[in-house]
Amino acid sequence: MLMNTASATGQAQLKHGNRMAIIRQLRVQPGQSRVELAQALDLTKSTVSALTRELIDEGWLLEREVLVTGDIGRRPTPLFIDPTRLLLLGTQVGIGHVRVVLTSLTGEVLAAQNAQYDTGQDVEACIQLLKRTLLATTRLCQTTQRIIGIGVGLPGGVDQARDQLVFAPHVNWHHVPFGALLRQALHGTPLAGVAVFLQNDADVAALGETEFNPTPQADPLLLVLVGEGVGAGLVVGGRLLTGVRGLAGEVGHMVLQVDGPRCSCGRRGCAEALIGSRALLQPGKTPAPAAVAQAGQYLGVLLQNLSAAYDPGCIVLGGPAMALGDALLTPVRDTLAEYAQAAGLPEPALRVARFGADAIAVGAAALAGYRLTQPTLA
Predict the structure, then answer these.
(1) What's the superkingdom here (predicted)?
(2) What's the predicted TM-score (pTM) here?
(3) SS3 string of 258-273?
(4) Do 316 and 193 share a structural domain?
(5) Domain containing 124: what range?
């Protein structure tokens, strides 16, 4: 009996893996036929046919009509991710605010809600606000739609093995079982039982760029968020690099200037103190052009160091600092170009985050899709 149970479990896992492999293949190469999927995934045509039939029935996939070209013979039917029936919720837990977006499996933002919280309150108050905002967004769904995952982007390191926020310095949260608290808050609501996934805000923003806009030229993809703090997310070969304790990407505390200004972490000359200072980005105030230019130069230095370490296919910049526009980005590009020319190397590809101010919230939705379709990956 034990052997039969183990065998059944293995077969179920294999089937699930094959189903999700089809989903991920069509995410990267939409419009493939069943025959093309079988060849790409090394599966039998009958297996692919059976699995795609299930995935269509469940709302993961859809078929589209083939354009008539005049060719003789039956043309294979292209398959696509269905953007209408299964949905994701993505949440940005920022410094004093939360933003929730409702997205399709392919990243289209269908609805959004914002709310403010007092950073002096405890984390449970923030979670209750988040619960209300999630439910308000959920009520915007149509009756034919179903939410299958909730992603949360948090302003600090996340230990996925323990399902907890390790430390969020700007709100002073330490070792918070955020996932368990949110699931408990959602108990008895329409979102009870929906899978919840946590990750650092820069990490989810990086996933948003790769999951919802996959291009081979952007591998590895390095995303750097610049706001009150500075953080980075790195995706290599479709996998998010999180580190042993979930603290990979804390680049805001790389020292760029010996004996520089004091950082929130207690050290001097960190990237956060030189680039992501609250004074530089304070709402309602126009920062001095010289200060913005200097911050851009230091950001260029940081990106040069990260480029040397990871050799990314693409560097993406996001966060509130992008509102400064070319005043910040021009010195960034100039600094990167200067270092590249000195070394006789091409400049790294650099662009601004595709989802702009929604990079974290949409990225959190991408995290949910990523974990649901690759459940064995970190």
Answers:
(1) Bacteria
(2) 0.90
(3) CCCCECCCCCECEHHH
(4) no
(5) 86-204+359-373
Q: Sheet containing 230-236: which strands, arranged edge to edge?
A: 239-240, 230-236, 221-226, 314-318, 350-352
**From CA 136, how far away is CA 138, in angstroms rounded?**
5
- For the chain, the farthest-separated pair of C-alpha atoms sits apart, in whole angstroms, at 74
Q: In this structure, are 218 and 343 located in the same domain? A: yes
What would the two tokens of residue 376 be? 């064995």
- CATH code of residue 174: 3.30.420.40
Q: Is the bond leading into 220 cis (omega within 30 degrees of zero)? A: yes
The bridge status of strand 157-159 relative to strand 164-168 is antiparallel
194-203 residue pLDDT tens: 999 999 999 9
Q: For the chain, state the CA radius of gyration.
A: 22
Short-list 239, 150, 153, CA closest to 204: 153
User: Which residue type is seen at 17?
Assistant: G
CA 248 to chain centre: 15
What is the dihedral angle through the alpha carbons of 310, 311, 314, 318, rounded to the nearest 10 degrees?
40
Q: Sign of the CA dihedral 83, 154, 198, 187?
A: negative
What does the block give as tokens for 207? Answer: 């996933």
| C-alpha count within 13 angstroms, C-beta hemisphere, residue 354 | 19
List pLDDT tens digits, range 77-97.
999 999 999 999 999 999 899
Give me the DSSP letters along 216-255: GGG-SEEEEEESSSEEEEEEETTEE---TTS-TT-GGGSB
Domain boundary pick from 81, 97, 128: 81
